[in-house]
Amino acid sequence: MDSRIPLALIEAPPVDRWQRALTDLRISVVDRCNFRCPYCLPEDQYPDHHQFLDRNARLSFEEIERLACVFAGLGVRKIRLTGGEPLLRRELPLLVRWLKRIPGIADIALTTNGMLLPRQARELREAGLDRITLSLDSLDPVVYRQLSGNRGEIGEAFAAIAAAEAEGFGALKLNTVVMRDINEAGVLDLVAHFRGTPHVLRFIEYMDVGTLNGWQRGRVVPSAELRARIGARWPLQALGRANSHDVAERWSFVDGGGEIGFISSVSTPFCGDCTRARLSADGKLYTCLFASEGFDLRALLRGGADDATIAATIAAHWQQRDDRYSERRAELRARGNESRVEMFAIGG
Ligand code: SAM
Ligand code: SF4
Ligand code: SF4
Question: Is the pTM of this model over 0.85?
């Protein structure tokens, strides 16, 4: 199909109530997953027969491309494809190819658990995918398997890394959700393994996304504690954030062994710089990872709205945005605000 022409890049992109622009879009292409990570899609809450979205409920590639064009016109420059497990969406490289040609989109990234990457890495690269983030919670085969909900093998994660390297993806981001007493003991092994490689480990504080992962604050390992532990073995120096909108704080090894990152949304919230919008696989727009409701863009698309109407609706929605969940976590949890979208629906 022909590439769409986005709306002329507008002179004054929308900003929200806290003067945050809209520059990043995370698109969940499917809500299904081949894992059942306990912190995201716990097995006991989502057994194999759970009803995920059916095909018609999901946005088609044409609909995703059309919305991405509109978002580009509003100032979005970076797109991340996520899920569920995005590589379960058939023909994903085709979508990458279409998104890649949208004027204004400078960067397309993918977050994946990697199980299906070896057979898709080449096509994704050829389609123009810029970067890959791979989730990797442990090097220990037993712990890795446990944190995949008994569905993944560490050998497959290594095969994914090798496939990405072979296709020239270069430095990968490796996401590790750290949980107290579950995989925290393996953090130093992860660091030892990836120090000196181009890949960058990013330790993520276990978050209270969704409502079904049984989150307990006691399971969160604060980044400062982890950093002290890692730094005691391999001294670290702060690099700050790559840019103010990045979620990870970067640190480098003093001895030149590369860098690692920390995503500390629980202990050190970064809502002030949050310029990310999220689109669920069924076309709902979420302006916060912890939102309880999304705005139904699929209804607008399928109801025949033109691009200008969709753009104006998104801009108006963004301008009303007041989200600062992580900064207000204690207060909102105390209020018993327990309605939140699940992580697998909007993709982190
Ligand atoms: N399935 C893909 C994957 O796991 O990479 C993409 C979707 S997954 C929802 C995106 C990221 O969210 C993953 O890196 C995952 O580790 C992270 N994540 C999921 N639940 C989380 C939680 N409760 N706290 C912190 N990070 C979480
Ligand atoms: Fe699936 Fe990713 Fe959620 Fe794990 S974190 S259950 S791999 S969507
Ligand atoms: Fe952005 Fe919401 Fe996370 Fe704050 S809590 S950084 S507003 S997604």
Answer: yes
